[in-house]
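Entry for the shared binder. Reason: the reviewer on the internal report wants the predicted structure included alongside the sequence.
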Amino acid sequence: MVSPLAAALLEREASAQPRPASATPAAALIEPAGPQDPPPQKLPLAPQLKGSRPRSNPNVLPPAATVLPPDLRLLQAPLPLALPNKPSQVSIQELRPLGLLDSLTLAEVNNPNLKALAVQVQEAQSALRAQISLWYPQITLRAGSFPTFTGGQQYSNRATGTGQEVGLTLSNIWRMSADVEASWALINPGRNPQIAAARDQFEQAKNNYLIGLRDLRLQVSTAYFDLQQSDEQVRIGQESVRSSQVSLRDARARFQAGVATKLEVLQAETQLARDQQLLTNALYGANSGSGTPGQSIARRTLAALLSLPQDVTPTAKDPSRVIGTWLPTLQESIVAAYAFREELDQLILDISVANSNANAELAKVQPLLNIVNTLSGGRTAGYEFVTQAIPNEIGWSVDNTVGLNVRWNLFDGGGSQALYRRGKQLAEEKRYRFADRRNTIREEVERSFYELEANNRNITTTSREVLSARESLRLARLRFQAGVTTQREVVDTQRDLTNAEVRYSNAIADYNKGLASLQRRTGLDQISICPVPSLPPNKPVVAGATDVPVEVQPLVPACQAKFRPGNAPAPSLAP
C-alpha cells in the first residue's frame, strides 16, 4: 500500500517528465492565466507611502543622552586629541561595575563616532544654507583707488618752427574711488536643483545620525551581553575546577586506601587540566564553541565603545538573565522594519539627489539672466602746474549703471546631456538598490525572529539539561564513594554538567542579543520585561565544593611548557 506522501511525490515526478516535442505545441509553452488564477497583488510604491523626498523623523526612537548623570560624570571621555605617552597613563586603576542602561548612557554621551555623525549633520546644514543663498542678491564692494596719490615733475625743451618751447609740469593730486555692484539672478535654471539636492543631503545626514545611534545601541548591548556571558563562563570554569579538585582529592584518597587504581587518579588529573584550560579561555581567550571573547577582551571591547578614561575598565553589574519577550508577530515586525528603517529612506533620497543633480547638469546649457546695478563714486583733490599754475581744485563724480546680463552656453559638445543621462541612470540604479535592500531587510528580520525562537527553546532544553546533569553528578559521586562505580563515570558526568551549563549560558546570551537585534532591525521597542527574580543576598554554599579554593596557575613560558615524550631533555639550539 502506497502512503499519501509517496503518492504525491510520484505524481509530481510524473508531471515533471518531459513531453514529446510533437505533443507540446509552441503556443502551449506560454499558457495564459486562467480565470481561476488570482490576480497579481498590487503593492503600493514607496514614494506613495514615504513621499518622494522623505523627511528624517527623530521621534521614531528615544533621543540620545547628552549629559551624564552625577554618578557617571567621572567617566567623561578624554579630549578628542588626547594621547597617552606613559605606561602609567594606561594602567588600569579602577574596575567600574556598570549596568546596561549605564552603558547605553555613557556610549551616547562619550562615543566619538556618534559625535562625528552629529557634526556631519551640522556640516550638511551649513551646505544647505550656502545653496539657499543663491536666492539672495550678491553685493560686491570694489575700491581700486582708496586712495591714490599722483605726484611728479616733467620738464620739456624742444625746437619748433616758431622758436623754442619750454614746458614744465608739476602734479600733486589725491584720488579716491569705489564701486558697489549688486547683482541678482532673475533666471537661474540650476538654482532649484542645487538647493533640492542639498536639502536631501541634509536629510540623509540626519538619517545617518539615527542609523549610527541605532547601531551604537546594538553594539553596546551586544558587547554588554558578551561581557555577561564571559562572566558566566568564568563562573562555570571556576565551579568546574572546584569539582575536579574534589574528584581528584577523592580519587587520591581511595588510591591511598587501596580501593582505587592509578588510572582513576590520572583520569581525575586529566579532567582537572581540561577545566583549568576552560577557565583560562574564559578569562583571557575565546570561549570555545560560542565565539564569545574572554572576560578581559570583553571588558576592553565595552570600554572602547563607551570611550571611558584610559585607566578605567568596566565590569557587568547586572547578572546574566533573560530580559523579556518579543511581543510583535513576524509579519508585524517585517512591516515595522519597512516603515521605521532609515536605510530605505536613504535610498529614496538618493533617487531624489540623482534627479536633482541631473537637472543641475542640464541647466548648464540653459540661459542665465542677471540684473546688475553698479554705483561708482570718486573724489579728486590737488593741483597741477603746467607752465602757468592751475589753482587748487576739488572734484567728485558719481556714476550709476543698471543693466541685464545674459549668458547662454549654446554648445558644449553634448557634455551636459551626457551628464544628465548619467544622473537619470544613477536614479534608476538606486531604484534597484532599494529593491535589494528591501529584500535584505526582510531576510534580516526573519533570521533574527527565527533565531530568537530557537534560542527561546534552547533556554528551556538546556535548563532541563543542567538540572539533570547536576543530579547525575550527585548520584555518580555517591556511587563512586560507595565503590559501585569508577572515576570514569564521575569525570564523564562532570564534563556533561560543564557543557550543559555552557550551553545554557550561551542560550541566554544569544536570546538577549537576538532581542537587541530585533529592536535594531525593526525599530520597535515592544518587549515584555521579565520580572526580576528574587534571589537570596548570599551565594548558596555547596558542601564539599564551594569551600575548595581555585588556585592561580603560574604562567610558564611557552618554550618551557612543551610536551617531551619520556621526559627527554629539551633540544639545545646552541651551535
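Summary line for the report: The mean pLDDT is 82.
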